[in-house]
Amino acid sequence: MGFVAVAGQALSDGLNRGAEEGVMLDQVFIHCPYCGEAIEILVDGSADSQHYIEDCQVCCRPINISVSFDDDGDPQVSVASENEG
Ligand SMILES: [Zn+2]
């Protein structure tokens, strides 16, 4: 896979530039239902509840991700393995 560990500076610069462009993305950490690793996802805060599949960044298996927003507008993320539907 193309994952490359880089020293933090360049990576955080890229994230900061993205935020300045007005993209409403919330950074959320979830735990992979397969391997249990904490992985970071970006949630589109301008959308309503979402359901999609994202491959684990560690074990590359497909995670069912459900996102809803509470009364404060904070994202509530739940994950399930493919078998759980
Ligand atoms: Zn995993």
Description of the structure:
The chain is α+β, with helices and mostly antiparallel strands and 85 residues long. The chain has one domain. Helices cover 15% and strands 41% of the residues. It contains one helix and five strands, in the order H-E-E-E-E-E. It has one helix at residues 8-20; strands at residues 25-31, 38-44, 50-55, 62-69, 75-81. The strands form two sheets. It has a three-stranded antiparallel beta sheet, with no helix packed on it. It has a two-stranded antiparallel sheet with strand order 1-2. A hairpin with a 6-residue loop joins strand 1 (25-31) and strand 2 (38-44). The radius of gyration is 14 Å and the shape is globular. The chain starts with 7 loop residues before the first helix and ends with a strand. The model has no long low-confidence stretch (mean pLDDT 81). Zinc ion binds at residues 32, 34-35, 37, 56, 58-59, 61.
Ordered list of secondary-structure elements with their pairings:
Elements: H1 8-20, E1 25-31, E2 38-44, E3 50-55, E4 62-69, E5 75-81
Antiparallel strand pairs: 1-2, 3-4, 4-5
The structure holds zinc ion.
Describe what is shown at a glance.
With 85 residues, the protein is α+β, with helices and mostly antiparallel strands. The chain has 1 helix and 5 strands; from the N terminus they run αβββββ. The protein has one domain.
How would you describe this structure in keywords?
85 residues; alpha+beta; two-stranded antiparallel ribbon; 1 helix; 15% helix
Query: What is the count of structural domains?
Result: 1
**Biggest sheet strand line-up:** 3-4-5
Shape: globular
Mean pLDDT: 81
Rg, nearest Å: 14 Å
Number of contiguous helices: 1
Bound ligands: zinc ion
> What structural class results from the helix and strand content?
alpha+beta
What pattern of helices and strands is seen along the backbone?
A: HEEEEE
End-to-end separation in angstroms reads 26 Å
Query: What low-confidence regions span 5 or more consecutive residues with pLDDT below 50?
Result: none
Based on DSSP secondary structure assignment, what is the total number of beta strands?
5
The amount of helix comes to 10-25%
Largest sheet: 3 strands, antiparallel
Strand content: 35-45%
